[in-house]
Automatic annotation (TrEMBL):
DNA-binding region as annotated in the record: 29-48
Start and end residues of each HTH tetR-type domain: 6-66
Classification via Pfam families: TetR_N
PANTHER family: ACREF/ENVCD OPERON REPRESSOR-RELATED, ACREF_ENVCD OPERON REPRESSOR-RELATED
Key words, A-Z: DNA-binding
Origin: domain of life: Bacteria
Protein name listed in UniProt: TetR/AcrR family transcriptional regulator
Organism whose genome encodes this protein: Anaeromassilibacillus senegalensis
Length: 205
């Protein structure tokens, strides 16, 4: 890849992020993005197949990293489920939240794209996709606890979905309302205390 090609590519991404943040995916114009980047419309297609591919190039690396952070957390939780140290679950959950907040603020504008400007793309269901994945993993986690003879109150899958959606929607608020990072990190402790107490009460742990 030539240096000029790479510079043009990066400039298109930079200008696209600005336009997507301002107008959203559906209202953003390839013509205006190209104009801002000083690139012809024809040259644009040497870099991206279409507008959604351009949006994907901005957000997909972050989506994949979120999955990696999430999978690492799931593995840690599953290992704890095989022990009697269940109190550490809530501490681990809070630590994971802090890691996620740190990552969000390293890529804050991309999370704003995912949560607020993705309508019309396959990423528009990002938050609900996270909730659905967490619901499946949570059911598996508590099945592991029950297999070890640890009694927990059973909830319907739909109940878990509602509760987990409330949890992740609360986390998304720091992005949607543009909280300063310091405030968001304080908010994590409040969020963790609130939901951890709720989980323990609901589950009877």
């Amino acid at each position: 890849m030539s240096r000029d090609f790479q510079q043009t590519h990066e400039n298109l991404l930079l200008c696209a992020q600005k336009h997507f943040l301002e107008y959203g995916f559906e209202r953003a114009s390839i013509r205006e993005i190209c104009k801002d980047a000083h690139v012809t419309n024809g040259a644009f297609y040497n870099h991206f197949d279409d507008k959604e591919a351009l949006f994907g190039a901005l957000v997909e690396p972050v989506v994949q990293e979120v999955k990696a952070i999430y999978e690492a957390s799931v593995n840690e939780h599953m290992e704890l489920a095989k022990t009697d140290d269940l109190k550490s679950l809530w501490k681990l959950s809070e630590e994971t939240l802090s890691v996620i907040i740190e990552y969000i603020y390293e890529h804050f504008e991309v999370f704003r794209l995912l949560l607020m400007r993705a309508e019309g793309t396959r990423y528009s269901s990002f938050l609900d996709d996270v909730v659905c994945l967490e619901t499946r993993v949570t059911l598996k986690f508590f099945a592991e606890l029950k297999s070890r003879g640890i009694q927990v109150r059973e909830l319907a899958e739909e109940e878990w979905h509602i509760l987990l959606h409330a949890y992740f929607a609360s986390l998304a608020e720091v992005v949607m309302h543009n909280f300063p990072k310091e405030a968001a990190l304080r908010y994590v402790h409040t969020l963790a205390s609130f939901f951890n107490s709720g989980w323990q009460t609901v589950l009877g742990i």
